[in-house]
Write a structure and sequence with these properties.
The chain is an alpha/beta fold. It is built from 18 helices and 12 strands. The longest helix has 25 residues, at about 395-420. The structure holds glutamic acid.
């Protein structure tokens, strides 16, 4: 079979087996449509079923999470951990608590994580977990009970050498702290069983900032590769969580002007530059209601809905909210706004239609699995510090983060040249990671 026929056969088999898992199919499709030249150079991969083995998770754990709210009402949620690939080390990837969590979302994230983790150059396999629990509006005691119930089940399947979860949407220091405490109660002390821990219980300095900072380091490398840099650029960011807010801080520090930001309540455009202190105050004290922003910044405008639908001139888009947040139509609006660079901060924020619009318009596009790898990269550094029983300074971790992002970018540039890919950073990232993982699968035999 030709390389393309093999790819099509694998994708159509997955579509037949999992017709409802659209995010998972989208993520696999996006990688596999990029790797034809690698398969052409390795016809033996078909007989070894390399594509099937890389797309299929090693293990999917699905469980019930039962917990009681403050009124005594009992609730049931669906909990998951997808242990996607251990060829590059222990399963590694975050836990997401969000009502949009499904098996398909978990499988897409775990698949992406496997590629992302391989790009960091650190020895980490790929996994992802979560639950369809909505933490919004829940009391601290309810969050603690939920975290404990989730970890009671998950603790049977993870350890610091086997599977190391971290945070993601809806899971920050507080949740990791509660889950770490519950793990310890059940299994004993294992400092490295979770990353993204509060610094006081063995977390790494700069882990909270790492994803957002890393995105901007990576964006700046792409801009430099295109003869410019981020200083003086007009930037729009979606998402006011850890990823978006620290990307905004770093972009501003490097001389960019962040003129817009958004969250689930809507978006704000402020030509004076977004004031992140106000955004953080709104997030903490006003139920994230961004419509409050113009009260203290009268030149700013608030609008409900997606920031990607807004008509405003800018240079760099950093989608840092969630998967499939940019539709095809919104991608066209981004193009019409004169944007030159889209660097993905969230995992798979661009729909397949949006990616096509960006391609058709020669948008310079930084793919999530490379651009947002700084978060898990510093998780890898947290594991190292835990094993060494040491703590590195903020500056030391930040410098290593810089090194990781530079290493990823250099490998992408080398791949662009080797495969004559022009400025197609996404295809280069997929090829580079796929080659690594495929070789690791082959080396470890038929297992
Ligand atoms: N959830 C983050 C991601 O999507 C971080 C995972 C980790 O630190 O293990 O990469």
């Amino acid at each position: 079979m030709t390389a393309n026929a093999y790819i099509e056969r694998v994708i159509s088999t997955l579509e037949e087996k999992h017709p409802d898992q659209k995010e998972y199919l989208q993520a696999v499709h996006e990688v596999y449509e990029a790797i034809t030249p690698v398969l052409e150079a390795h016809p033996e991969y078909e007989k070894q079923a390399i594509l099937e083995r890389i797309a299929t998770p090693e293990r999917v754990i699905s469980f019930r999470v039962t917990w009681q709210d403050d009124e005594g009402q009992v609730h049931v949620n669906n909990g998951y951990r997808v242990q996607h690939s251990s060829v590059n080390g222990p399963y590694k990837g975050g836990i997401r608590f969000d009502p949009t969590v499904t098996l398909s979302v978990m499988k897409f994230l775990a698949f992406e994580q496997t590629f992302k983790n391989s790009l960091t150059g650190l020895p980490m396999g790929g996994g992802k977990g979560g639950a369809d629990f909505n933490p919004r509006g829940r009391s601290d005691a309810e969050i603690m009970r939920f975290c404990q119930a989730y970890m009671t089940e998950l603790s049977k399947y993870i350890s610091q050498d086997q599977d190391v979860p971290a945070g993601d949407i809806g899971v920050g220091h507080r949740e990791i702290g509660y889950m770490y405490g519950q793990y310890k109660r059940l299994q004993g002390v294992q400092l490295g069983v979770l990353t993204g821990k509060p610094v006081s219980v063995g977390g790494s300095l700069a882990r909270t900032e790492a994803t957002g900072f890393g995105i901007v380091y990576f964006a700046n490398q792409i801009l430099k590769h295109n003869g410019t840099d981020i200083s003086g650029k007009r930037v729009i960011i979606s998402g006011t969580g850890n990823v978006g807010s620290f990307a905004a801080d770093k972009a501003t520090e490097l001389g960019a002007k962040v003129i817009g930001i958004s969250n689930i309540t809507g978006s704000v455009i402020d030509e004076d530059g977004i004031n992140m202190n106000t955004i953080r105050d709104i997030a903490a004290n006003h139920a994230e209601d961004l419509s409050k922003y113009p009260e203290t910044h009268p030149n700013a405008t608030f609008a409900e809905g997606s920031i990607w639908a807004r008509e405003v001139q800018y240079d760099v888009a950093l989608p840092c909210a969630t998967q499939n947040e940019i539709s095809g139509e919104q991608a066209q609006q981004i193009v019409d706004n004169g944007v030159e660079f889209v660097i993905e901060g969230a995992n798979m924020p661009s729909t397949a239609e949006a990616v096509q619009v960006f391609r058709d318009n020669d948008m310079i596009f930084g793919p999530a699995k490379a651009a947002n790898a700084g978060g898990v990269g510093v998780s890898g550094l947290e594991m190292s510090q835990n094993s060494l029983r040491l703590r590195w300074t903020f500056e030391e971790v930040d410098e290593r983060l810089h090194g990781i992002m530079e290493g990823i970018f250099q490998n992408i540039v080398d791949t662009l040249e080797e495969y004559d890919l022009g400025k197609d950073y996404a295809t280069a990232a997929n090829i580079y990671a796929f080659k690594n993982i495929a070789e690791l699968v082959r080396i470890q035999g038929v297992i």
